[in-house]
Design goal:
about 120 residues; mainly alpha; 4 helices; about 55% helix
Length: about 120
């Protein structure tokens, strides 16, 4: 018997590329047709965070610059910019960094907190 003939007698291995049947986590990735695209939500979230990072130091640096001009000093603008950056990072952490991460484990997993910003009340 030739080596080729022996291969035909053995069953071919089954190649599995994806899970068959409904996934137990399918509801987590299902999107509502009424809601915005997840990529658009991520873009809006990134734009909001960027706006906080830019506006904080500008606002507090501007207030520091006005106080410097009024008092005749030159240090308050730097303190204001640093304070604005610190407050911006703190606000970002409060709004977006404190969500509950889901735990691994079937039905006992906690859903992560949804971002609560101006776009998603």
């Amino acid at each position: 018997m030739s080596p080729l003939r022996r291969r035909v007698d053995t069953p071919q291995p089954r190649l599995v590329t994806r899970r068959e049947g409904p996934s137990p986590d399918a509801h987590r990735w299902a999107t509502d047709p009424e809601s915005p695209n997840p990529a658009a939500q991520a873009d809006a979230l990134g734009a909001t965070v960027l706006a906080y990072l830019i506006s904080g130091p500008l606002l507090f640096g501007g207030i520091g610059w006005l106080l410097d001009r009024w008092l005749g000093t030159s240090l308050i603008v730097a303190v204001g910019a640093l304070l604005g950056m610190g407050l911006s990072l703190y606000v970002i952490w409060l709004r977006y960094g404190t969500s509950q991460a889901p735990t691994s484990g079937g039905d006992t997993a906690l859903p992560g907190a949804k971002p609560h910003n101006e776009e998603n009340p």
